[in-house]
Amino acid sequence: CGDDDHLQHIQANVPVLYYGFADTNDFQAQNIRESSEGTTFDVFVRNNFYDTFSIPQFGNHTVLNALSVIAICHYEEMPADEIKKMSTFKGVKRRFTEKEWGNQILVDDYAHHPIEITATIDTARKKYGERPVVAIFQPHTFTRTKTFLHEFAESLKLADYIYLCDIFGSAREDQGKLTIENLQELIPDSHVLTLEDTAQLQNFNDGVLLFMGAGDIQKFQNAYENIK
Which helix (H) or strand (E) holds 69? Predict the structure, then answer.
């Protein structure tokens, strides 16, 4: 990704192709349009128009993912019409996996890093417009939580409402003194969520509920769905 300054300095004995939004890239995405069906964008190869592509996903990160695929397929001389078949790719499990639940949308997502959390919230905003976005986040490992504590707080603040679940620890690390309350202190309007009180999520009648984490965050979604 040529938009990353650090990656601009890659040294390799093979061709290096750069992709991104900046016009300094070999492959550039321009004129991004979003609709209820997904995202459409134009691709330029070394500043010359190549073709227009569509994907059923939302968010700049998904455009960049698609652009990297377009770049390598173009390099391997695959015809544009064949590359366009990516429009049928519905995504992978636990990457914005959606379910309609009454008037709500429940989303299961593997996001466990601040950048991924930002991307997931951004996708929800772009796809569901003015509907309230509710982040339900379970940090994964004490080490990562400690390292990115402030970054987690800043990314989660992009949601309208924030619920935090206890840290999912690793058997190989020492918990120390870190708790979920340390993260909560950095997000004044957040709440700690337990399996016993998921019913409060019913208050967001038309909300988009993002269950995010790499541990066992699914058990919170399951508990919510099993409320009688």
Answer: helix 60-75
